[in-house]
Amino acid sequence: MWLDKPPQDDNPALTPLLRPKSGQQIVVELTGDPLRVFVHYAAGRSWPCTGFSCTLCKRQIAKRFYAYYPCRGNRGGLGIVELTALAEAQLTKQMEPFSDFPCGTIKVSRPAGKKNMPCKVEWFPPDKYKQTAGSSHENNKQTGCRTPTEEELKESLMRIWNLPSMNGETEEREYLSKLNEIIRLKTSRRET
After folding, report:
1. How confident is the model over 135-160, as pLDDT tens digits?
2. Domain boundaries, the chain
């Protein structure tokens, strides 16, 4: 009944999405592989592109690429940092030739001014990377901290987008069909 310390809040379903606002920066430690997705902006918000027979693609609503990296913040909590295509290109160029093993600390900043100014990304390699002069791929993987799985990342993003999660109850094709219908209904109501 009594606890020695507060419970660790590592519930991936409650993982916050981190993106810098104008004039701000975010510093996080990467903990795993990113989830990459195309996103449409319609009816005042973001919607994931469902690929095959996407309702928003059929309506020719532009889509953008985003990469969502699992991370750990400076207070130790789990998070997901959102990078645009340009920001991820900066990151992978800095991490070369080890971009297949996301690790280290990144600082993502957005200059003051307009809220849609491009982000700048700086990568700081982990100590193990510095000690081995980048010679060992395996030594560069993050260890010692929990990272959300790909499924947990997807669940978190669906919660953030306020869409139903798959929960393994239906086949992916059936789920995407239902998701398409939900997106069609929610975006058509707001445009009329």
Report:
1. 444 444 444 556 778 888 888 898 88
2. 12-128+147-191
pLDDT of residue 102: 81
Length of the chain: 192
- Cα dihedral 48→95→142→166 (10° resolution): 10
pLDDT at 106 over 80: yes
In the chain, the DSSP E strands lie at 17-18, 25-30, 35-42, 45-48, 63-72, 78-84, 105-109, 120-124
The encoded tokens of residue 69 equal: 């990296």
CB atoms within 10 A of CB 153: 22
End-to-end CA gap in the chain: 54
**pTM of the predicted model over 0.90:** no
The answer to whether the beta carbons of residues 140 and 134 sit under 8 Å apart is yes
